[in-house]
Amino acid sequence: MARPGVRVADSKKINSELFTLTYGALVSQLLKDYENAEDVNRQLDRMGYNIGVRIIEDFLARTSTARCTDMKDTAEKIQSAFKMYLGVNPTVTSWSPASDEFSLLFDQNPMTEFVELPESCLSLKYCNLFCGIIRGACEMVQLEVTSWFVQDSLKGDPTTELRVKFVKKLEDAMPAGED
Amino acid sequence: MSSLKLKTTILDRSISKGKNEVSLNGFALLFSEIVQYCQNRVSTVPELQAKLSEFGQQVGIRMLDLLIVREKNGKREIKLLQILIFIKSTVWKSLFGKEADKLEHANDDDHTYYLIEKESLVNRFISVPKDKGNLNCAAFSAGIIEGILNTSNFPAKVTVHWHKGTTYMIKFDESVIVRDKQLEGR
């Protein structure tokens, strides 16, 4: 895809409204197809995972960062990725005592720009795509994490809080037949 | 649960200025997931394009309201050529960063117009394998046009073709042409 000799230093940007409305069309289509918020949440997580495993390559290509040494590094990288891809600046807070869990607080989120959740969809996790993306991206760099939403401004909470927890480091499995 | 606290609805917030930007790569990945999702639910290329067009219509319907309020001061277009120019310039500029390249009228058919762009933004990172034949994922953008036209009361069918880049063929209903001729005659 990349042509030799052509290096795009700065990424091309598009209007966030196209992104917002496209994501909204996706979620509403999923709701129509699955009719059940739990299934939609799962589907969004799965799609996010697929995006995550590809977006990590793009992220690494554009930032050429080194491997993270601990979760604090990881948190910073995730924070800068949000800035790069969505133009938002989440704050990293609420570290657990073992420094393996942290929260990202979003005071604004382009994905929910024109969104209102009706009463019938209160168990829908509208931004579940993020959880999948983080999970997929980290898995590609040998980190197993789980992420979930603690607070969601679409449901009346003051802010949107996404919590990420380190589970374990993944070892590269050697292909069978090699030592 | 929240009935006691005063909920500010989305309509209480001021309208966004539309100047925020997100990365194209992020959008491309999201769009790729959408195409894959549609692909899993259909079996032919025309059905896939139809599904993508449906997504586009959802986007178009909402973009119309937003742009009319923000750019046109609430004044909606009632003439055919005006709405086409609105789509070619305002809508395209707002969604894709630049105007569409050409707007043409079919020589032999007064119901048909063509909107042409050399390179479609949504197709930027998409390569179509041979077994998918004529698939053009800009059916999504065709859906945007169709959503806008149908909601503005210019019922039409919009299809996408590989011609001079990407061409959107807009076929208006008879009623639209008749009405427009009457308007002009006044």
TrEMBL record, chain A:
Keywords carried by this UniProt record: Endoplasmic reticulum, ER-Golgi transport, Golgi apparatus, Transport
Similarity remark: Belongs to the TRAPP small subunits family. BET3 subfamily.
Claim: Nucleotide-binding is one of the keywords in the record: no
Function per UniProt: May play a role in vesicular transport from endoplasmic reticulum to Golgi.
Taxonomy, superkingdom: Eukaryota
Subunit (UniProt): Homodimer.
Organism of origin: Daphnia magna
Biological processes per GO annotation: Golgi vesicle transport
UniProt subcellular location: Endoplasmic reticulum; Golgi apparatus, cis-Golgi network
SUPFAM superfamilies reported for this sequence: Ligand-binding domain in the NO signalling and Golgi transport
Keyword Endoplasmic reticulum: yes
Any GO CC annotation of this UniProt entry: TRAPP complex
Name the record gives this protein: Trafficking protein particle complex subunit
InterPro entries: Bet3 (IPR016721), NO_sig/Golgi_transp_ligand-bd (IPR024096), TRAPP_component (IPR007194)
Lineage: Eukaryota, Metazoa, Ecdysozoa, Arthropoda, Crustacea
Pfam family, one: TRAPP
UniProtKB/TrEMBL annotation, chain B:
Annotated localization: Endoplasmic reticulum; Golgi apparatus, cis-Golgi network
Pfam families: TRAPP (PF04051)
GO CC list: endoplasmic reticulum; TRAPPI protein complex; TRAPPII protein complex; TRAPPIII protein complex
Any single biological process term in GO: endoplasmic reticulum to Golgi vesicle-mediated transport
InterPro entries, A to Z: NO_sig/Golgi_transp_ligand-bd, TRAPP-I_su5, TRAPP_component
Subunit annotation: Part of the multisubunit TRAPP (transport protein particle) complex.
Known function: May play a role in vesicular transport from endoplasmic reticulum to Golgi.
Family listed: Belongs to the TRAPP small subunits family. BET3 subfamily.
Protein name from the UniProt record: Trafficking protein particle complex subunit 5
Species for this entry: Daphnia magna
